[in-house]
Structure formats: C-alpha cells, structure tokens
C-alpha cells in the first residue's frame, strides 16, 4: 500500500497528523510533511505504508479537508 501526498494542496489543518504518525507538522511552512516521502513531482510525495498502519493511513486521507492525500493498494488502484 502506498500513500500520495500533494503538499501544494495542503492547507495545514494537520488533521492527518492527528490520525497517523506518518505525517508531521511543519509549522514554518504551515503544511504537513509525509515522513519518508519521496518527491515524484513538484510537491507530490509518495511513501510506502508500513505493515499494520494501513487503517491509520486511510483515516489520514479521509480526514484531509482538501483531499491532498490519496491511498493506493498494491495494484496501484486508489482506495481512498
């Protein structure tokens, strides 16, 4: 499972941080940071979801008020 985070879309509500430890607050930028995320495009970050943290990653995606987070299954299909 992978998570994709569009940091440019992020508005810094930090609801993802409350739902999953895979995100941190960047108070200087006023945006969240995806821990271990690799930048694939301008401000688009992708990271593997560790085993046992899948539900938390899904909650983080659902909690984002601007849909800056997407979760994909192992086949690359978006599930959240």
TrEMBL record:
Q: Which SUPFAM superfamilies match?
A: 4Fe-4S ferredoxins
Arranged from A to Z, the UniProt key words for this protein are:
Electron transport, Iron, Iron-sulfur, Metal-binding, Transport
Instruction: Enumerate the transmembrane spans.
Output: none
InterPro entries, per database record: Fe-S_cluster_ET (IPR051269)
Look up keyword Electron transport and say if it applies. yes
Instruction: Please indicate which superkingdom the organism of origin belongs to.
Output: Archaea
Specify the protein name.
Ferredoxin
């Amino acid at each position: 499972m992978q998570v994709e985070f569009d940091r440019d879309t992020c508005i810094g509500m930090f609801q993802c941080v409350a739902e999953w430890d895979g995100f941190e607050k960047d108070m200087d930028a006023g945006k969240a940071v995806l821990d271990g995320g690799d930048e694939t495009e301008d401000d688009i970050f992708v990271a593997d979801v560790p085993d046992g943290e899948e539900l938390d990653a899904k909650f983080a995606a659902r909690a984002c008020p601007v849909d800056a987070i997407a979760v994909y299954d192992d086949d690359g299909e978006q599930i959240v």
